[in-house]
Amino acid sequence: MPEFRFYPELFECRTKLLDVLExxxxxxxxxxxxxDLVHEAYGLEVCGIKDEEDAIxxxxxxxxxFPDWKYGCRCLKDYGDRDVGWxxxxxxxxxxxxxxxxx
Length: 103
Description:
The protein is an alpha+beta fold. It has one domain (9-102). The protein contains two helices and five strands. Strands 1-2-4-3-5 form a five-stranded antiparallel beta sheet, covered by helices on one side. The protein is globular, with a radius of gyration of 13 Å. The mean pLDDT is 89.
């Protein structure tokens, strides 16, 4: 079992991303449902994005804000009750057991 890692500075990264998304007219709970921390790979994930075009643009914002975070994915979650929609995930480190692609 991998060791749990905790990076408190990711909370600041999350706040920074939320601010930049708002500056680009993306409102929390209107355009996406959550921004989650990904401690195991030092990253963030924007969940529940309603439109694919918004997911692509949010990914570009993500890349501009954190250019050193080279690992990530963009995918559609179309099942369940929580955070249905597009997901954009970007991380500095490659997550163990994930088939990540550099995006």
